[in-house]
Amino acid sequence: MFMKTKNLTASVSKRRAGRPRAFERDDALDIAMDLFWRHGFDATSTNQLTSAMDISPPSLYAAFGSKEALYREAIAQYQKRYGAFFSEPIGADCSAWDAVERVLLGAAKQFSNPSHAPGCMIACGELQSSADNAFLIAEIAALRQDAQRAIRVRLEAARKVGELPAVTDTGALAAFYAMVIQGMAVQARDGASLARLKRMASLAMHAWPSK
Amino acid sequence: MFMKTKNLTASVSKRRAGRPRAFERDDALDIAMDLFWRHGFDATSTNQLTSAMDISPPSLYAAFGSKEALYREAIAQYQKRYGAFFSEPIGADCSAWDAVERVLLGAAKQFSNPSHAPGCMIACGELQSSADNAFLIAEIAALRQDAQRAIRVRLEAARKVGELPAVTDTGALAAFYAMVIQGMAVQARDGASLARLKRMASLAMHAWPSK
DNA sequence: CCTATTGTGTAGTGATAACTACATAATATA
DNA sequence: TATATTATGTAGTTATCACTACACAATAGG
């Protein structure tokens, strides 16, 4: 007969054999995400991670495998928790102009939200890092490219239906708005206010091609 | 009687007593600048530095004092060698529009120039770093603020002489163009071409207030 | 109860971090 | 030549890095 237990993971998935984990994996991951977001991969030590997560090194390695694997999970957690400001509007059933404006205003709000680390974990992620982490650096750069590509796809669709002039270079325009998001992330990290970031978003919309 | 010697520093400054330095301080500094530019302060080890500079640790410490002091000198070297794309146009005797456009086009050229590291050492500098380097992080952020302030001063002067509408929020406009420079630096680091960056600069000029 | 399985806590591992002690080499000046 | 000064090369220092060996604790299923 199934019985409720104190097992922390019981509520999420079927209980496995063996001693149950003494901490919430997802909570620990949130803490790791916050540290990696603020300080990057290199500058976040396993000591800082285990201290902040309030677990011992063997627990960290048993649960996540390695520092690098933990970083990858933290990035995925970031996308899951904070990726909607981008993915939701860019795929929404609205005009491309509205979609891009919503992305930029969403970025302004999220990058300056004091309830979490400032800026964007991906936009500012691993821009300067050890050559040892070349693979990790390339992965984060690929995520930035993915976002830029998603903008381009949205713009290209808009161009095809006449929302944008037929001659529009959607690749260049997508790169411009990706650049704006990245610049806003740097500004947010330097303490730019919500109002300032919203104004930047508004000014960036002036680059939109006129028909 | 003064005689030419093999002393490397003799040509630059009056020879001091003691054994002469066996390497060109300025060349070594250029090498350190390149490493710090690419990988940041944390991810550049003294081992990498001494190897690349082809000197021993005691020589590095005798010449520069500490890794942190070397980083500061590398930043100063960067400003001296690569700061002109910004400081020259921003102080030039031309319209504010021309000044800002020249800064952005200069950034496009410099950030993508393959003869040195991509992007900007200051725009992308220490965005993610160890909490131990809080002082260093604040210094680089201050340099970004200095640049933004210089733009604002230039725009404010333009507003006063009627080059910009009297109602222009020059602080917000300066933040926008600083953001564009920072975003372009991220794009350059991710491999954006000169043509792409120039197009971004051109699109950013559309945010300029109409009279 | 037993066994298998999985997580935890203690206390480490070797590698590398930034940095330096010390003897010696090379110069300026007396 | 003698002394003071500065740089170099060898070979370290202590601290921290990412990570783990090992004994034991806590669970599932039989």
Task: Outline the structure in words.
Two copies of one chain form a homodimer. By secondary structure, the first copy, chain A, is mainly α. Chain A has helices at 25-39, 46-53, 57-64, 67-82, 84-90, 96-111, 134-160, 170-189, 194-204. In chain A, helix 1 (25-39) crosses helix 4 (67-82). Chain A starts with 24 loop residues before the first helix and ends in a 7-residue tail after the last helix. Residues 1-13 of chain A have low confidence and may be disordered. At the A-B interface, helix 7, helix 8 and helix 9 of A face helix 7, helix 8 and helix 9 of B. The structure holds a DNA duplex (30 and 30 nucleotides).
Biggest interface, chains and residues, is: A-B, 43 and 43 residues
Helix content of chain A: 55-70%
Oligomer: homodimer
- How many DSSP E strands of chain A? 0
Topology:
The structure is a homodimer of 211-residue chains.
Chain A: H1 25-39, H2 46-53, H3 57-64, H4 67-82, H5 84-90, H6 96-111, H7 134-160, H8 170-189, H9 194-204
Helix pairs in contact in A: 1-2, 1-4, 5-6, 6-8, 6-9, 7-8, 8-9
The structure holds a DNA duplex (30 and 30 nucleotides).
Short description:
Chain A has nine helices and no strands.
Tag the structure with descriptive keywords:
homodimer; mainly alpha; disordered N terminus; DNA-binding
